[in-house]
Amino acid sequence: MPTFRCAAVLFDLDGVLVDSTRSVERQWRLWAEEHNIDPEKILEIAHGRRTVEVIQLLAPHLQLETEVRRVEEREADDTDGVAVMPGAAGLLKAIPEGLWAVVTSGTTHLATSRLRHANLPVPKVLVSADEVKEGKPHPEPYLLGARLLGRQAADCLVIEDAPAGIEAAHAAGMKAIGLTSTFSASELHADSVIEDLRHLRVDLRDGKLELHIVQ
């Protein structure tokens, strides 16, 4: 039974704590149709990345701020099918406040909307797309999360569902557990892979968290 010992846990949001895949894909397909862009090209890169970077990559000719705001507001309003991920509520209850954070590629508005819709707590530390210059797979979001929690990066554990997020965690010097909610285990390149958060058990020992993977 693998065990990860850490000072804090940094959670990605979409695909980890909240199931929003249908909403995300619906809104990106709508946006792609409006701008005559192949939606499959968008969906290949959108998971785990900030909206601003997706648009910069595929439609740099558009007015960036306007398009980012449009996509993010639509996603926040589209709650059809958005739900808490299995095991998320119980896992968050087991981790003391101040020892976990959310690090997401969405905006603060989008992230808080989804957490509240899923009846999950909004943590004191929530690193969003608004607060970083570089999004995942750059390490900046996870490094900022560790700093705001007052922890060393190497003492933090990341839980992610996207290759871009796993890459960001490793670049930040953190270990990462991957969830196969969006990508296959072979695509994640994580330190360990689980199907969902029900496979994690948390203990607090000597001021440190111990996350045990149980099958």
Question: Summarize this, please?
Answer:
By secondary structure, the protein is an alpha/beta fold.
Summary tags:
single chain, 3-stranded antiparallel sheet, DNA polymerase, domain 1, Rossmann fold, 215 residues, 20% strand
Word description of this protein:
The chain is globular and about 55 Å long. It is an alpha/beta fold and 215 residues long. It has helices at 21-34, 39-46, 51-58, 64-77, 88-94, 108-117, 140-149, 163-171, 185-188, and strands at residues 3-6, 8-11, 18-19, 83-84, 100-103, 126-127, 156-160, 175-179, 192-194, 200-205, 208-213. The chain has a six-stranded parallel beta sheet. The protein folds into two domains: 3-20 and 82-213, 3-Layer(aba) Sandwich (Rossmann fold), CATH 3.40.50; 21-77, DNA polymerase, domain 1 (Orthogonal Bundle).
